[in-house]
Design brief:
Order of helices and strands: HHEHEEEEEEHHHHHHEE
Distance between the termini: 56 Å
Strand content: 15-25%
Number of helices: 9
Radius of gyration: 22 Å
Shape: globular
Number of strands: 9
Largest sheet: 3 strands, antiparallel
Length: 294
């Protein structure tokens, strides 16, 4: 493993910030840190501009950390100030990939839709957006996705399939082994998020050190996209310091807050501004998806 001094020598945050500003909305590698905790702290410091004046004022940069192939943790950042608003970072990526099959007598091509991490498995950079690609095989037409990672690393269909199957197998095993324990514990009082909390409780009990980012990816894979977005939203508010168990607890608390909220109507709070105009804003307690209007 490389020494801490080697990793630190790579990071010139002033140059990184200038590069990110020049390519607003594009992710830029900020540095590689020897530990995952160090990488998470650095990402949080970038977003808060804490002890890093190059990223001032706070909130003008976004950052995240991800595993790097050399054993360290890569930190990526992007400049988000100004208009129009940049697209939010996805919790996972979905691709249609070609599965050639391995069994004897296999004929034709099978197209599988996979859900994988949004980061490149080699450097942690963002994976590219999918674009459809049509091809013909044995007289039949098929559609798969192609994408290009900005980091330049190539994702092969076989590698993506292996990543997807490994993750799916781990999650299925975790659910199977914890099925009896979950049944004994009884239903979780989490309202509309009951299924999402059950899934997270099961995963966290079997996957030691489950982080909220992984929890959001897991829920997205299981079709719990709304719960995954809420966790991402809360994770940003906590500057990334959130475990999988804390994510499950947050969903329980959010469901309870929604049931008890008497300050809004379907997620809206209407009040009269000083100029006499009536304004409708999103309720911060319910956090329901509404479009603020004035």
């Amino acid at each position: 493993m490389k020494s801490r001094s080697v990793y630190r020598a790579r990071t010139d945050h002033r140059a990184v910030a200038e590069k990110a500003k020049a390519a607003r909305g594009e992710w830029v590698l900020a540095g590689i840190y020897p530990t995952s905790s160090g990488g998470r702290r650095a990402a949080g410091s970038i977003e808060r501009a804490r002890h890093m004046p190059s990223y001032s004022p706070p909130g003008t940069f976004e950052a995240y950390s991800a595993q790097h192939e050399d054993g360290g943790t890569a930190v990526w950042t992007r400049y988000v100030a100004g208009a129009p608003a940049v697209e939010p970072r996805p919790s996972s990526m979905r691709y249609r990939v070609c599965d050639p099959g391995t069994g004897p007598g296999y004929q034709g091509v099978k197209i599988i839709t996979v859900t994988v991490a949004p980061e490149c498995p080699r450097c942690g950079g963002p994976r590219g957006k999918a674009t459809p690609h049509r091809f013909v095989k044995d007289g039949d037409w098929y559609v798969v996705d192609q994408w290009s990672n900005a980091c330049g690393h190539l994702d092969t269909y076989s590698a993506v399939l292996a990543e997807y199957r490994k993750r799916a197998a781990l999650l299925e095993e975790a659910e199977r082994r914890a099925e009896l324990r979950a049944a004994k514990a009884g239903p979780v009082s989490a309202g509309e998020y009951a299924e999402a909390v059950r899934l997270l409780t099961t995963a966290a009990s079997e996957m030691r050190g489950l982080h909220a980012k992984q929890a959001a990816q897991y829920l997205d894979m299981r079709g719990q996209t709304e719960a995954a977005r809420r966790i991402q939203e809360e994770m940003r508010a906590r500057h990334g310091h959130m475990s999988g168990r804390q994510a499950a607890k947050f969903l329980v608390e959010l469901a309870a807050a929604r049931e008890a909220c008497d300050q809004c109507e379907d997620g809206r709070i209407d009040y009269r501004a000083r100029d006499g105009e009536f304004v409708s804003l999103r309720c911060r307690t319910c956090r329901r998806d509404v479009i603020p209007s004035a």
